[in-house]
Automatic annotation (TrEMBL):
Protein family: Belongs to the FMO family.
Cofactor(s) annotated in UniProt: FAD
One of the Pfam families matching this protein, by short name: FMO-like
SUPFAM superfamilies: FAD/NAD(P)-binding domain
GO molecular function, one term: N,N-dimethylaniline monooxygenase activity
Keywords noted in UniProt: FAD, Flavoprotein, Monooxygenase, NADP, Oxidoreductase
EC code: 1.-.-.-
Protein name per UniProt: Flavin-containing monooxygenase
Name of the top EC class for this enzyme: oxidoreductase
InterPro entries the record matches: FAD/NAD-bd_sf (IPR036188), Flavin_mOase-like (IPR020946), FMO-like (IPR050346)
UniProt superkingdom: Eukaryota
Residue spans crossing the bilayer: none
Length: 238
């Protein structure tokens, strides 16, 4: 859009530290308070004239086919109570897959499926309802004590590798290699550093704990003598 618009007004409330240097035609704004005939008023009281609006507001959780008797409470941005972000504590024969944020979703979903399969096969047993509820309640208390939203019940982030380790330790499934979480973290940091160039890298896994990131050099740049930068990253022991 920056290539074609005279001005781009970006309204968002992300708390991530985006370090990208944007051109002057990019204007960052907080949440929208209201729309006017020819523009927008933001929660800080400022106003911008707007020609076109593109909604990128995410999505809400909804399970209209679930009856309240299943024991789950479904809110627009979180579902509870879930043990390991997965098992319905009130009806532990029921699991809800894929409710994780800030994670390598394909990897996380695969780990959850393998955990569930091991449970169905009888390879391990879940803790008692009371024990699962205690584990879940500690997560809730931690979120509340730090003033975080309840949607963070589904947040993995820098605890993604720990989550995979816990699933593996409890169920006996093969552990997700630590390199996967490290790669996602580095890729995300690269994106925050520069939203314009973060795709200009090739990632190559070396082993379960390390990977190589190589800069993608364009043909014209190679002719000019530019050499691709290559960096090896190693995951912490987990």
């Amino acid at each position: 859009m920056l290539k074609y618009a005279k001005t781009v007004v970006h309204s968002h409330h992300s708390k991530q530290n985006i370090k990208t240097k944007f051109p002057d035609l990019y204007i960052r704004k907080p949440d929208i308070k209201e729309f006017k005939e020819n523009g927008v008023v933001f929660v800080d009281g400022s106003y911008e004239e707007i020609d076109k609006v593109i909604y990128c507001t995410g999505f809400s959780y909804t399970y209209p086919y679930l009856d309240p008797s299943c024991g789950l409470t479904v809110n627009k941005d979180h579902v509870l109570p879930l043990y390991k972000r997965l098992v319905n504590i009130n009806e532990p024969s029921m699991v809800v897959l894929g409710l994780v944020r800030r994670a390598c979703h394909v990897v996380a979903l695969d780990a959850q499926v393998r955990y569930t399969t091991a449970l169905l096969k009888g390879d391990f047993k879940l803790p008692s309802k009371e024990e699962m509820m205690n584990v879940w309640q500690k997560e809730v208390d931690n979120i509340n004590c730090n003033g975080r939203p309840m949607s963070d019940l589904h947040l993995l982030g820098d605890k993604e590798d720990q989550y995979y380790r816990e699933l593996s330790d409890e169920s006996g499934i093969e552990r997700v290699p630590p390199v996967m979480s490290k790669l996602r973290n580095v890729s995300n940091e690269t994106k925050l550093e520069n939203l314009f160039t973060y795709r200009d890298y090739i990632y190559e896994m070396i082993d379960d704990k390390s990977f190589r990131r190589t800069e993608r050099v364009k043909k014209r740049e190679r002719l000019d003598g530019k050499v691709a930068e290559s960096i090896v990253f190693v995951a912490d022991d987990g």
